[in-house]
Amino acid sequence: MSQFDLVIRNARCATASDIFMADIGIIDGRIHTLGQSIGPGRKEIDADGRWVLPGGVDSHVHVDQRQTGGGLTADTFTTGSIAAACGGTTTMIPFATQDRGQSLRWAIEEYHDRARGKTAIDYNFHLIIADPTAEALNEELPDIIAGGCTSLKFFTVYDDVMLRDRELLDAMAAARREGAMVMIHCENAAGVAWVTDRLLERGLHAPKYHPAARPAIMEQEAIYRMTAFAEVTGVPLMVVHVSSGDSIDIIAAARRRGVNVYAETCTQYIALDSTHLDRPGLEGAKALCSPPPRWRGNEEAIWQGIEDGFFDVFSSDHSPYRFDSTGKFPHGSDVPFSRMSSGVPGVETRSPILFSEGVIKGRIDINRFVALNSTNAAKIYGLYPRKGTIAVGSDADLCIWDDQYETVIDNDRLHHSVDYTPYQGMQIKGWPAVTLLRGELIAEYHDFRGKPGDGEFLAADKRPRSAAQTPTKTELAKLGVPDLV
Ligand code: URP
Ligand code: ZN
Ligand code: ZN
């Protein structure tokens, strides 16, 4: 009689901190045993000394989401999660969006309905709050957090979702009180609008002006302001899609003041730059996202932040707009950059690009890769240790990586519902040869082997209040002011 459902033999395992050789014994979808020469499995896979890493956790994904600006995300929970699986991602955290005037409860229920029974990998939701009424924050939010959605996203820009400063403070305080994590999109709205208007007045309409319209200094201004708000409210803050080297300094300064602030960067800030928007015709729109990829050379500062361990999380910000009037061009294609949908797809290419550009090129070691690709997001968003690591008791979400496999990114081989990838033609070394979700095969190289509907909703843990206390180094603490939340 077999003891294990599945045994992976000769696995060169890496977690965020360790490397060890093991046979991995899996029972009921969980890692039961890590050891040498363990007993037989009903099924066995020989990893043959290749890297076996935790499945990817992509904590910034937009699927089946109504988008600011009018474009439709083409991926459903099915197609988006199939694409994720084929790039070695086994958990994703997309967004549920509250529209103004809508109840939070309704918004969450709507996204549960969209995802339930249709998703091929495990998932949770971040909740975008666009209308932080007293009822939403005081009456609805506690139930939503108790229901396992414990991270909220707020915007400082985009007319239809942005919050005013006072609203941001109240919403951050509510998040802190209820044990939630806040993600923040940082760009100064007035600054972006003013520069955009000046460019448009001068007839500078092409996608290549998009980076100029959203200057890095406007990102930095908003990051500074939001870290100040996090300091007085004591809420743990994730600055998402950090795009510029100087933003790193602002977040680092906040951390030195004792603010509990995390940082995310994304594939587009290491693999794209402003020259990708400066392409003939509308081609540049394929790299149009916000904050934008910056001037060539800025990506080195982002790499430095990745290498130094400054960044906690590496995400795709997968925004699957088709290159037509349903997606990128909801107002037609003969419009200025400011009327095109902002965002680039990348859920399938995120892990392979980080592995190839980071590990294979010697910029980061395998432990840093695992931390950025899986572990840190699982910890920060309350899914650890079920997700994001290789340990007894954890879900058997595992990738066997083929680090000798070479390919060129080609949209025809990707599984998203988008008709382009901004990473077309990029040379890649390394791809997950085998991807398992709770011990079941879901992908082999580029081929999907799973079943839409096998993905489960994961209830995320609340932030323990002790971990969100106003840090002792802050000004209010030094003045002896009690916790204000
Ligand atoms: O341009 C982007 N990043 N679009 C997606 C929405 C967001 O702000 O994350
Ligand atoms: Zn954003
Ligand atoms: Zn996003």
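^ N-(aminocarbonyl)-beta-alanine complex. The first strand starts at residue 4 and ends at 14. The longest helix spans residues 216-233.
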